Amino acid sequence: MRRFHLQFVLLMAGMIAGIMFILPPRVAAGESAGTEWFKDIRNHWARSHILRLAALDLVRGYPDATYRPQRPLTRLELVALVMRVGDFEKAAAEAARRGTRRHTVEAAGTPSPAGSPIPRVPWGQDSFTLAVKKEFLPPEWVASFNPDKPVTRAEVAALLARSFYLAVPEEGDTSGSAPSTGDFPDIDRAPALYQPYIRAVAAAGIMSGYSDGTFRPAHILNRAEMAVILSSLLDRNWVKVPAGRRLEGWVSSVRMDPKGLELELTSLAGVQKLRVSPDYHCFAGGRECTLLQAGNHRVEVILDGRRQVRWVNLLEERKTAGNTEKVTGSVKSVVLGEDNLLVLNDLNCEDRIFSLAWDAVLVGKRAKQDFRSLKPGVFVEVELDGGQVKRVTLLEVKKISGTVGTLTGKTLGLLGRSSQKGNPDRFDYWDRARIVDREDRRAGGVMRGDRVEITYLDPIPGEIQDERVLQIKITSRPGLKKQTGKLQAIKTTGGTYRIVLEKDREYDVDPAVRVTDPSGNRIAFSDLDRYIKSRIELWLDGAGVVMEIRIAGE
């Protein structure tokens, strides 16, 4: 009877140890304003990592509001942690709901993939069984699993390498490893089967050695050290985090109102106003600070289940742009993700790819701070600092369509337009604009008579000739049109020649007009005087200007 009682006490002690590790965070962290989440980590070196993970419900404490950072981590706790951060708990629970719970709970005697029976554990059986079936556990663990055995650094390396499917180098192969991670001087102290796993986690950057260069594979890992490892997994986005709980951006304002602190977080995806939990924690360089110090800093923010700010880490200060370069063009695409990119088609019709700085802002009369709102074709002015986009101004452009009537090296004029009606009839320095065809491809140049759509800026509405042309789109280019009749007269006005046909039809003549006689031979324009009353053919461009004259005869 005493033996049975002792076994029962030991079993309950193991279950309680496991339950302590996975208690709900409300019990662990405490919800009352101004309370300490864990009273035993106030000055602990891993405090920021522990609180970061606790804010995401990835690690939990005990009912007495302690975390016990120096407590050795057991094998079963390690398995439970990996299954939680890898989001496998959900898969295990789903398997149980589908009727497989009988197989997992009655695990003893059920063969594992390695052939050994799946052990029964005091708690978390579904997750443990799934870990065995996925072969996350080294086979020797399954053969004689002791849930309460403290884990070593070598064993943690093995479970992480297998669970996250890291590339495991062959013995003696250090290629692909980061510098100084090929081999640790004490790696031979680890069992031979564990050495490749140690190399793999070191190369992946999720476990490193000590300041003396050793790995210490036999060192018993405690809960604080495991929190640091999990934090490195989180940095690499290998940890499953509920959507919307982990944010990045820069703090554009922190203000106090009757409801408490409110943080305004600005990012490339927009602006969010977030309520701050009364028991939040804020860190800078691993040291605790106040949220009021976070202004104009890029930060990582973790929200609790009520979408309140629970944990903040200051990453870097936002700097004022120095010498900036400006580029004008139209947006081709915006990519937000691991790489944040803006693809711009500049005024030379060249596509340029720019990296968006983390604190880039979008401004303009109709702009909102969300780079996803930039649609293809929108004209913008981009300010670059160090090659990165710091500011994008949404330009207020206007458009006008018409036929090119006059065209010089400096001025482009439209037919039938009057500046008195509020629309410009001519544009100076048009040649600085981008010239494209109907498909927005680079066009060779503008010709008189082209039907065009002009996109321009009007800095001071109402002012004359202050427009800046950004783009000229050639929508059509009519061919030459023929007019026939008897030559009645040739007029000269201010250096411009005009042809008059019968019925007083008058046409401007291009200075480079081509003239041919009845035999098809080219003659000088001045020789036309000899053909008054003769029948001629005029070939006009789209603006109605004579480009060619053919004399038909008497």
Topology, pairings included?
Layout lengths: L1 H21 L2 H5 L17 H9 L19 H11 L2 H18 L19 H9 L5 H5 L9 H11 L31 H10 L18 H13 L10 E12 L2 E8 L2 E15 L2 E3 L7 E7 L5 E9 L7 E11 L5 E6 L4 E13 L15 E7 L2 E7 L2 E11 L3 E4 L11 E3 L5 E3 L14 E7 L10 E9 L4 E13 L2 E6 L3 E12 L18 E6 L5 E8 L1
Helix pairs in contact: 3-10, 5-6, 8-9
Keywords: Repeat
Organism: Desulfofundulus australicus DSM 11792
InterPro entries: Cell_Envelope_Struct_Comp, SLH_dom
Describe this structure in words.
- With 554 residues, this protein is α+β, with helices and mostly antiparallel strands.
- The chain folds into five domains: 46-99 and 108-169 and 182-236, no CATH class; 246-317, OB fold (Dihydrolipoamide Acetyltransferase, E2P), CATH 2.40.50; 325-394, OB fold (Dihydrolipoamide Acetyltransferase, E2P) (Beta Barrel); 397-476, OB fold (Dihydrolipoamide Acetyltransferase, E2P) (Beta Barrel); 481-551, OB fold (Dihydrolipoamide Acetyltransferase, E2P) (Beta Barrel), CATH 2.40.50.
- Helices cover 20% and strands 32% of the residues.
- The strands form four sheets. The protein has a six-stranded mixed beta sheet with strand order 14-13-12-16-17-15, with no helix packed on it. Strands 1-2-3-6-5 form a five-stranded mixed beta barrel.
- Helix 5 (88-105) crosses helix 6.
- The longest helix is centred in the first third of the chain and has 21 residues, at 2-22.
- It is elongated, with a radius of gyration of 38 Å.
